[in-house]
Structure of Phosphatidylserine synthase:
Amino acid sequence: MTTEKPKKIDPRSTLNNMQDDLHEGAEMLSHALEWPIFPGPQILEWRKVIPNSLTILALFVGLSSVYFGMEKEFKYSVWCILTAGLLDGLDGPAARLLKGSSRFGAELDSLADLVNFGIAPAILIYLWSGYQYGAYGWIICLIFAVCMACRLARFNAGVDFNASAAFRNFFMGVPAPAGGALVLSPMILSFQFGDRVSLLGFSFRFDDPIYVMPVVLFVSMLLVSRLPTFSSKMIHRSLFGPIGPFKILLAIGIVTGLLAVLIKQTWLFALGFYAVYIATFPYSYWIYIQNSRNKSK
């Protein structure tokens, strides 16, 4: 009786087969995510990963604010929202600078904005103040989140303003990052000046829903309003003009300086930003009216 000898396994052949399988799986995953893992035909380039990675990082940070809110660490929560706002301001310029814009990135950015500046702040406001009004406080916070969704849907649908050159410098209503930051202003006031303050012999708490809920409704109205507000592109063109290496370095220096001030005097810096931003509303409306008149002539 003869026994069949076992076949010898060629390590090189096995390794090559494993590499082929791994490469094929990586290509399938790359197409699904629109991210390149291995270079090849019809796979997006690495330059598109950088802006999308910034968006995903912002989403991680924004969602972390909810965790800190449930732990009653509201300062860390607000820090997360502000950091998500900074990251949101970087992914767009990074995509344009690297020529890495994509439909996937645009959709991901919009969904991240809804979470970071709509859902997360609504939950934080309820955990910090709205719970004192029970279901009524929750409904008001829901109104803010829904208005944020409507604002983003309107922007994505391209129905903000007439596409003519006279209107391209404006947003219709307050943009999502600004709305998410403005609705947290009562929390930031309490961080800077304390939970209870006295003014002209009148003592009040910043977390009192009687003051917080009107702020939430007011910011919700700004989100879905037709108020023309300056866009970041307009401000950039006015201050810096066309992009160049020197201006990129200058912008990096300005951002670094602002971050240094933000880290040292976080809440005072944020309040100053709010004041300056709100002060631009009358001016932006006046500029918009002037552009409209010039366009109609």
In short: Residues 45-226+242-292 form a domain with the Four Helix Bundle (Hemerythrin (Met), subunit A) fold (CATH 1.20.120.1760).
